[in-house]
Design brief:
This protein has 612 residues and is mainly alpha-helical. Among the domains are: 222 residues, Tetratricopeptide repeat domain (Serine Threonine Protein Phosphatase 5, Tetratricopeptide repeat), CATH 1.25.40; 90 residues, Alpha Horseshoe (Serine Threonine Protein Phosphatase 5, Tetratricopeptide repeat), CATH 1.25.40.10. The chain contains 32 helices and no strands. The termini are far apart.
Length: 612
Amino acid sequence: MKKLSLLIAIALFYAATPIASAQTSKPFSIYDDSSAPGALTIAQIKRAEDAGYAAYFAGNYVKAIKIWTSAAEAGSAKAQTNLAKMYVNAQGTSQSKEKALYWINKALTQDYAPAFSVTAELHQKGIFYPADWQKAYEFYERASELGEGRGAYFIGMAKEDWDDMEAAIKFYKLAAQRGFPDAQAKLGLMYERGIGVKIDLNKSMQWHLKAAQQDFPFSIYTVGVNYKNGNGVPKSLALANNWFKRGARLGDGACLMSLGEPSRKQIKTDIFALAKSKAESGNAKAQYKLAGLYSTGQGTEKSVSIAKYWLEKSADQNFSKAIFDLASYYGSASSYDAQKSKMLYLKLAKNLQEPRDVIARAINAYESGDYGLAFFLALPYADGGNKYAQSIIGKMYQWGRGAAQSKDKALTYYKKAGDQGLAGAQYSAAYIHQYDNDHMYAARSWYKLAAAQDHPDALVALGHFYRNGVGVDKNRDEAIRLYTKAESLGHEGAANYKHLTQQEKWDEQRRAQARAVQAAKARTYYYPPKKRNKWSFSNMLADAVSNSYNNSGTASYNSASSSYRGYASASTYSSNSSSGTRSAYATYKAPAKVSPYEYRYKSAWIVDGPKY
């Protein structure tokens, strides 16, 4: 009995022990490089969320992704949404539709309101989805129902677009009461200018003040101006300057220009001191900013060497912008060090950081003729799935610039980028299929995808298919429509193609009309009889019979009635004949003086020329 009681106690002890504690003997640290445990406690998830924000705002995006991934896998909807946004914006990683949608869908299943707003924005801007305002509205509406201010704000914007100002103001107020600064600033502006409401400068100031306290730049400047001019509040130059200084420290140029010269210098000194303090404490983003201040001499003396020192400090912490600037510095003519530059670019490529800047650099290198550098910069990102890099690499393989020419490799990269919706890559894939592979069906399919995104060259190419009937039924109306659209998008040759196709269409219509007239005229004439052979037995017999009628006087044959030699007359039948016998030639009508062939085809000859 005692043994049984002991076993029950042990079982209850393990049942009460948290799973996470049972899996690890030491507390999990979010800064630990070892693999994270399979599950986190609620407290650990909360610490991971906060640490992820700290890393993100410090500029260490790679670290933020690592921390938030552990929290997201443990079920944090906040971390899942933040990860999705980083994969959309390519922060610390390459843009990834699959990963972004994977994490955002995880958060949606938990009814996390910001996840609905993020999804709405993807539909609104056409990112990963076709642009669809109706779907965006539905997701914003759900976010608003779940208590999110951003969702209510965008519903208000939709209502305003639909001229339903009463509903718009209702949703703006709802969003503002939930603390959304954009809505607070919007209401401030509406009360200031009387948009949908009566002008009330006091209410305007109240809403602007709420937004300004959240460091919303427009409202900070507006509050400063209101204190300066006494709009809705007692006039106070001291308070106005305080708000202008606050906005200037946040980088707002309008606030900075609203201050006097001594105050501007002081602000620059304060910005430098704050950046230096944060940089010395190890903040990578502040170190990068401090390097910029030293390089331009703002708030301090200009020093390239000190700027380079802080840039390297920031790059050592994996701050992507610092790595990119340092790589560009070593790649410049004044401080050329190809090996260091390449190593830094490879460091960026390892985690596919700063794809926009690196790819922009690759494009500039390509356009300036430095194909080797362009290929080196773009290839890691292309293999990592970036559609823009894939398009660049495809172009270099297609024309043999920076790499050995290979149409097959070019097509592979173009298809990868085209599958991600890049219209230029879709057009290039179609071009290779048409002119190198002679695969018209595949070419037409890719042209259609690019044309659906209003790619001018694809519209023209597809127009040629319909104009000439290549793989499709000839349809000049569709070709003209495509050429017209390409012309509206600025294609230089589209207008000429449209004119030629229109002319072909009109010519074909005239030919059809001429053929109809020709057929109608042909039905009014008999074909002439075959020329008679007077030496044939049947014709000799017929002549004998005819002569007997003439000799008897009962039937008269007037040879003069037939003026066309060699053809039978149609007037050889006499009604006075007692026997009523019809001449063998009586069924034929006398032809006109002009040849029937010449008369029959005269009009058609004029239209179509030598064809007839």
